Amino acid sequence: MGLPVPLGKHTFVQDKINHLKQIVMNLTIMKRLRFMAAGLMLLTVFLFPGCKKDGATSDPSSSFKNKIWTGEFNNGDGAQPLSMEFKDGGAITWYDLSGEISGTWKVENGTITVTMSNGNGFKAGVSGDNKLTNFQSLFGSTAVMVHAELNTSAEPALDETTWTAPNLNLHFTGGNKVDMALGPAGSVKYPDIIFVYKAKTIRFAVVNGDYKWFFVRNSSSAFKGINQFMPDATLYPLDLSKN
């Protein structure tokens, strides 16, 4: 007959056994939880293979090919309107008050890069609602982008329509001609001005080309405009509305 185990020692041994059992149980539960978590991750991958961040698009190239984007940029002398005509194959034409500038564009990893022949350019992200975000000017660029978005606005004919802004009246007479009246009473008149309408922009000049006007169509009834009367380099922005 063996010697009886002291009560204290018996309790100690039992506690150790219970502790080991608890450890084994905890390990088993942790393994099951890890297995379930892995299973949920795999299920998410299979159920949502195309899931992406809100507002992002993996390949936005189709939003640029043969499309027009309009917005504003700043050369250090105030915001001014612009239009960008993206062409299939990577060519782009930039339109602003100074004229038309050629360049190239490309999309990589959801980021568009625009490089112009005059040294300006930028990189930007593309949101899900076709707006450019997170602008970064290219090295050496003097043009800083303010905003830009895809412009799909309707373009009703301008012939025989009248558009106004403070101290400005434009009446489009047809045949790419416009009558301009300036001043509160329209006392300064420039009739039969020949204008160019291209890529949702209007461009014309008077006074031997020194008085330049440029407008970007943002909707069927509104233009964002700007003018400059050289040799004064000041830019005068305006909003043009259809009467």
Overview of this protein structure:
The chain starts with 6 loop residues before the first helix and ends with a strand. Strand 10 and strand 11 form a beta hairpin. It is of the alpha+beta class and 243 residues long. The chain is elongated and about 110 Å long. The chain folds into 3 domains: 1-51; 60-150, Lipocalin; 161-242, Lipocalin (Beta Barrel), CATH 2.40.128. 17% of the residues lie in helices and 47% in strands. The protein has 1 helix and 17 strands. The chain has one helix at residues 7-47, and strands spanning 67-74, 79-86, 91-96, 99-108, 111-116, 121-126, 132-137, 144-150, 161-165, 168-172, 177-182, 188-194, 196-198, 201-206, 211-219, 222-229, 236-242. Residues 48-57 have low confidence and may be disordered. A 9-stranded antiparallel β-sheet has the order 12-11-10-9-17-16-15-14-13, with no helix packed on it. The chain has an 8-stranded antiparallel β-sheet with strand order 7-6-5-4-3-2-1-8, with no helix packed on it.
